[in-house]
Design a protein that fits this description.
single chain; flat
């Protein structure tokens, strides 16, 4: 036990000496004379840059695309607008333009707005 304590104390002293003997910065060296600024160059060849060209004419805007997105307006359902209406499950009819192909190969996202934030409803 005494040997372990002595070895620990010697290691601690050696570690403290190593930390205190190292410095982060050395002495500041002397600065030599600062030379003149060099010339501007282009691709490594000494010279000046060329002048900018004139801007071209703006093109016409294209037609907007929608990537086959069908979006409905926000609706505020009433109790009579639900197809299924019970305390645990409420069901509304799908928006117009949704067919079997859309259901099988597309993605249908339904959002709920509670006047504080908008959240995506889970699929059950």
């Amino acid at each position: 036990m005494k040997t372990a304590v002595k070895l620990f104390m010697k290691s601690l002293i050696l570690f403290a000496l190593v930390l205190t003997s190292c410095t982060k910065e050395g002495p500041q060296g002397e600065l030599g004379p600062i030379g003149p600024a060099g010339k501007d160059g282009v691709n490594g060849i000494s010279g000046t840059n060329g002048t900018d060209g004139e801007d071209g004419m703006d093109g016409e805007d294209g037609t907007d695309g929608n990537a086959n997105v069908i979006a409905s307006d926000w609706l505020e359902p009433t109790e009579s607008s639900y197809i299924v209406n019970n305390p645990r499950l409420k069901s509304l009819e799908l928006a117009n333009g949704v067919n079997q192909n859309t259901i099988m190969e597309g993605v249908i996202l339904v959002y709920y707005d509670n006047d504080i934030d908008v959240t995506l409803l889970h699929q059950y």
